[in-house]
């Protein structure tokens, strides 16, 4: 679908004033620019400048790039651009061998302190839905490691969201199934300590068979951030992670999700992440605009102005 075609289907009302940096104070939600929209064509700090130019109120943080610029320069940049930090990746790989985990822990305090200093109080990490290691063994290992991570993050007021992966193809028959559903991931986050919650990636929510009741069960305090995309209706065995659609193009009940979050008084960042949807030949700015326009259209249908 070309951009002009999308604008026709989204409705004229959704396309008015899209470049303006509208306030969403009533909901506490804000839309942040995600790298899936720009195809790696723009790096930090130009990535943040692009977010502001297009009309985003927030931006996903490239922690390494921001640290190269320095805390003061990054704070000044975000303040100048009137952007809120969304999240950065957890700089510790807890799912690999002990040596890799320990190496990440050595610099975690420095990076958590930096993130807090620039106002980025959310991190995220993907949890593998399957593994060569039996489930109980892996759960114990990860719980011990994330408990240690949480102690460092807690000192700086930083929280981390666990992202569960829903599609079937992430769970090959040759491996042990781990955690791939929202409810169990929420419970696991609680086991790891007060610094942890979940990433509500609606693509994974949908493909894992989750419900709006699962979102309510998690509660506003355990949902750290939202990743937004849409899905075509297809058999579970055919789903691949790079077959996502822009918000509003598919069958996920996005309006129901955001109405539920609004009812819960949830506040936080919404990052459009339609992996595989933005054509490679499209400019970074056009991709960023498509992501913002589609997200705004869906949130407005849910009664949320951002």
Let me know the number of strands: 11
**What is the CA-atom radius of gyration, in angstroms?**
19 Å
Q: Whole-number average pLDDT?
A: 92
What's the helix count?
12
What's the helical proportion of residues?
Answer: 40-55%
Task: List its traits.
306 residues, alpha/beta, TIM Barrel, nine-stranded parallel sheet, two-stranded antiparallel ribbon, 11 strands, globular, disordered N terminus
Give the gist of this structure.
The chain has 306 residues and is α/β, with parallel strands linked by helices. The chain is 43% helix and 14% strand.
Describe the structure.
- Helices cover 43% and strands 14% of the residues.
- It is α/β, with parallel strands linked by helices and 306 residues long.
- 44% of the residues are buried.
- α1 (3-10) packs parallel to α12.
List the helices and strands and how they pair.
Layout: H1 3-10, H2 12-15, E1 29-33, H3 46-54, E2 58-59, H4 63-69, H5 71-81, E3 84-85, E4 88-89, H6 98-117, E5 122-126, E6 130-131, H7 135-155, E7 159-163, E8 176-177, H8 182-192, E9 196-201, H9 202-207, H10 212-218, E10 223-228, H11 254-263, E11 268-272, H12 284-301
Helix pairs in contact: 1-12, 6-7
